[in-house]
Design brief:
Blueprint (H helix, E strand, L loop, with lengths): L7 H18 L18 H5 L15 E3 L9 E8 L4 H13 L10 H9 L13 E9 L7 E2 L1 H12 L13 E7 L4 E2 L8 E5 L2 H4 L4 E6 L6 H4 L22 H19 L6 E3 L30 E2 L5 E2 L1 E2 L4 E2 L4 E3 L4 E3 L7
Parallel strand pairs: 2-3, 2-5, 4-6, 5-8
Antiparallel strand pairs: 1-9, 7-8, 10-11, 12-13, 14-15
Protein name: Protein EXORDIUM-like 3
GO cellular component, one term: apoplast
Keywords: Apoplast, Secreted, Signal
Length: about 350
């Protein structure tokens, strides 16, 4: 029986429509909020671990698996795009956090100690994620080249503009580069403050020309500090709770630090959405930081941060950087089978 084929013009039209539909529906692999979630949406850990001595996690409920994709085993270079209006002091806090990931001389508990959990993850050859994370080239987008309201696809266009700029373009590094887009407190990004404070994915070659792992994190100081800068700000639906004092004197940026750590850890362990994650759907995976949302110390879970530290000035932190203190959420250890961090009290 002969088979009728559509004319070539119809094939091209069909493929174009299919690709366009995919781009519109494709979502970054994670949308992260530091905690607490709105009480209207209840979290499994609130019920599953309520009587556990290790409220911060349980191997019985977590099936984190390796799906044979690459992880970042070479030196990791973070290329930052500063989108919008950023103060020098704000940039300095974020740069010093990223530089602290590989610092060897920070006092314990340290940011570099926190990264050791990430380094436990390997690829199919047994190679571990790199112990070196360094700052790369940066790009300033002070004039909001794509406006003050960005969609998820527009974010990829911002990255394309940064790597194709006529003056000082960002280097193209698909194998070990991370592209970190940071939006200032007057920029709204799709799903910001409702379901995400940050997310990561990879760029589409059809839009950007390359497959580049990237993350976006927004400054929530003006838009929703109670949602994305918690616990340095508290949402209205939690009465009679006093916010913590931020360690670097900037609630929006100190809130961003934990989200940046969350996304960098997941980009290193799942850069192309086919490496380390739990769940059956790679488009909506549960990754090594998702499993520990809102947990900053021993006993953490629910709306409780866990055992953290107080600085002399009354600020709250759980790890030391090169010259600063930070509050950063814990990560899931597939070796221990629970969430852990350098300030853990039980090991």
């Amino acid at each position: 029986m002969s088979k009728l084929f559509p004319p070539p013009s119809m094939v091209v039209l069909t493929l174009t429509i299919t690709l366009f539909s995919f781009l519109l529906t494709a979502a970054p692999t994670t949308g992260y909020r530091p905690w607490p979630q709105n009480p209207q949406t209840k979290n499994l850990t609130d019920y599953a671990f309520g009587t556990s001595k290790k409220y911060e996690g349980s191997s019985e409920f977590v099936k984190l698996r390796y799906h044979m994709g690459p992880v970042l085993t070479n030196i990791i270079t973070v290329h930052t795009i500063w989108y919008g209006n950023w103060q020098r002091s704000q940039k300095k806090i974020i740069r010093e956090f990223i530089n602290s990931i590989s610092a060897k001389n920070s006092p314990n508990p340290s940011v570099s100690g926190w990264w050791k959990t990430v380094m436990l993850y390997t690829d199919q050859t047994g190679s571990n994620i790199s112990n070196t994370v360094q700052l790369g080239s940066e790009k300033n987008d002070r004039f909001y080249s794509h406006g003050k309201t960005l969609t998820r696809l527009t974010i990829q266009s911002v990255i394309k503009s940064a790597i194709t700029a006529k003056t000082k373009p960002l280097p193209i590094n698909p194998r070990s580069g991370l592209y970190l887009l940071l939006t200032s407190d007057d920029v709204y990004v799709q799903d910001f403050c409702t379901s995400a404070c940050g997310f990561h994915y990879f760029t589409f070659p059809s839009l950007v020309g390359y497959t580049l792992p990237y993350a976006w994190v927004g400054n929530s100081a003006k838009l929703c500090p109670g949602m994305c800068a918690y616990p340095f700000a508290v949402p209205e639906y939690i009465p009679n709770v006093k916010p913590f004092k931020s360690p670097n004197g900037d609630v929006g940026v100190d809130g961003m630090i934990s989200v940046i750590g969350h996304e960098i850890a997941e980009l290193a362990s799942n850069p192309l959405a086919n490496a380390w994650y739990a769940g059956s759907d790679p488009s909506f995976p549960v990754e090594i930081a998702d499993l520990c949302e809102g947990i900053y110390g021993t006993g953490g879970g629910g709306s409780y941060t866990g055992q953290v530290l107080d600085a002399r000035d009354g600020a709250t932190y759980n790890m030391n950087g090169i010259r600063r203190k930070f509050l950063v959420q814990w990560l899931w250890s597939h070796v221990l089978n629970y969430c852990t961090g350098p300030n853990a009290l039980d090991h």
